[in-house]
Amino acid sequence: MRAPPATIPAPPFPRGLTWLNVAPLRMDKQKGRPVLVEFWDFCRVNSLRTLPYLKAWHERYADAGLRVIGVHTGAFPPSRDEAEIEAAVARLGIEYPVVIDMELEVWDFYGNEGWPGRYLWDTAGALFSMHYGEGAYRETELEIQELLGVERDTVPPVRPEDEPGLLLPAQTEDQPGAYSGPYEAGAAWAVLSGRGELTVNGRAVEIAEPGCHPLVEHPHHTAGVLEQSAGAGLECHMTCFTPGVPAPGAPAPPAA
Q1: Residue 46 and residue 61: Cα distance in Å, rounded?
Q2: How many CA atoms, within 13 angstroms, populate the side-chain half-sphere of residue 222?
Q3: CA 37 to CA 182: how far, in whole Å?
Q4: Which long-range contacts link 172-175 to residues 24+ away (Cβ below 8 Å)?
Q5: For a 10 Å CB count at each end of the chain, is N or C smaller?
Q6: How many CB atoms lie within 10 A of CB 81?
Q7: What DSSP designation does 86 have?
Q8: Rounded to the nearest 5 degrees, what angle is found at the Cα of 195, between the Cα atoms of 189 and 200?
Q9: Are strands 181-194 and 35-40 parallel, antiparallel or unpaired?
Q10: Whose CA is closest to 142, among 155, 125, 158, 124?
Q11: At residue 20, what are phi and psi to the nearest 5 degrees?
Q12: Are 67 and 19 in contact (CB under 8 A)?
């Protein structure tokens, strides 16, 4: 969503926060370059699904002047542990700056409302556009190019359901805890603390680190039944569902 021109200035980063991959940054020192700020959480599947685009934009446009900054604001016990956040940033191969917003200070300065929350600031430090949730990848990249004064092909869709303009069936809502039961989705995921063995539909899955882990993945939107149980050393905080494209021949979902 485009913002009114030059009417919303970029909030500062509070002092005393932990930064990863870089010395502490000041937003007022970023003027002269566009800045993309994304609120994320390594335990939220929606954040993990946007991550390939953030990494690609950093790789493609950092040399042209773009600054990508991840604001990690955790919602689950493992994503509120600073050591686990640092380990996740390394494990996920994130090379752009990440600031740990443990007390939601940056979140409150922005009035942010969810994960992922994406804010693109222009070279004067004014809000250029914003987007909540997954999607709008091509639009965001074209806005980045506009601010940088460059033109090139955009990052192709990482998943079939990322295709611009595609209508997707509604997936089952996220469920607290280790949900077992019917669902409709393209995939099911679990937010897990600890390390140990998770049983999913009779299959044992070894969990080596906390985070959001895939349970079942389908090539299309599918109706199924999920059975899961967490073994010793594991706790499931949330079961999440992500969309899938309609199967060939399935009726198109209604337009929103």
Answers
A1: 23
A2: 11
A3: 37
A4: 172/241, 173/241, 174/238, 174/239, 174/240, 174/241, 175/238, 175/239
A5: C
A6: 16
A7: H
A8: 40
A9: unpaired
A10: 155
A11: -115, 145
A12: no
| Entry pTM | 0.94
Q: What is the pLDDT of residue 254?
A: 64
Report the amino acid identity of residue 142.
L
Cα–Cα nearest to 13, from 75, 70, 94, 93: 70
Instruction: Calculate the alpha carbon distances from 195 to 51, 180, 205, 209, 231 in Å.
Output: 23, 20, 11, 6, 9
Q: Where are the alpha helices (DSSP H) in the chain?
A: 45-61, 82-91, 105-110, 137-148
Amino acid of residue 116: P
Residue whose tokens read 């990508």: 68
Torsion of CA 23, 27, 28, 31, to 10 degrees: 100
- Number of CB atoms found within 10 A of residue 123's CB: 15
Is the pLDDT at 3 greater than 70, yes or no? no
Which tokens go with 109? 């300065």
Tokens standing for residue 206: 């070894």
Q: How far from 255 is each of 22, 46, 248, CA to CA, in Å?
A: 44, 22, 18
Tokens at residue 52, please?
Answer: 């390939």
Q: How many residues does the chain have?
A: 256
Distance of CA 221 to CAs 174, 217, 235, 242, Å? 16, 10, 27, 9
* Cβ proximity of 41 and 75 under 8 Å: yes
Residue with tokens 């700020």: 37
Mean pLDDT (the chain, rounded): 94
Q: Is 208 exposed, middle or buried (0-12, 13-18, 19+ CB in 10 A)?
A: exposed
